[in-house]
Amino acid sequence: MKVVTDLASGFMGLFQSGGKTLVGWMTSIIPVVLLLLVLMNAIIAFVGEKKMAALAKASAKNPVTRYLILPFVSAFMLGNPMAHSMGRFLPEYYKPSWYAAIAQFCHTSNGVFPHINPSEYFIWLGIAQGVQKLGLNTMDLAIRYMLVGIVMNFIGGWITDFTTAYVCKQQGISLSKKVEFAG
């Protein structure tokens, strides 16, 4: 009977722990994300959807602007997870590749720009502590990590374009390469 009671207690403890996590999110990350969404939508309303669509169209023209420049600016200005939302202005065909590039960039730039992904900063601090114990400069590592990350994120985004093309062909579907922004 003790085994059954312990299993039931552990099972309920799992949900109690999940509830505590949810309440923690309700007072920390959810309000931040909500306010960033409000800010982004306010900026879009202020700038105008046509101008945002024009920016998306200009950014979608080549892989360098799609997977190198726009992800850097988005991550730096909006942080994770809001940087992902800039992909809504890109054509459907490029959205999988955008996600690949921006999701990776939000991780590889943390050492230099901790505001981009503060929830994962502890990972960087753990690595940095080991580097410091070796007597090395952590900023050297942070810059190298970011530079390699920028190149790899660009390559990852661009390769995802080819993957998207393959899957579209395999599935017999066609995704638009033109900005189609209702506004």
TrEMBL record:
Signal peptide limits: none
GO BP field: phosphoenolpyruvate-dependent sugar phosphotransferase system
Membrane-spanning segments: 22-47, 67-87, 142-168
Keywords, alphabetical: Membrane, Transmembrane, Transmembrane helix
UniProt cross-references to Pfam families, sorted A to Z: EII-GUT (PF03608)
GO cellular component: membrane
NCBIfam families found in the cross-reference section: EII-GUT
Protein name: Sorbitol PTS, EIIC
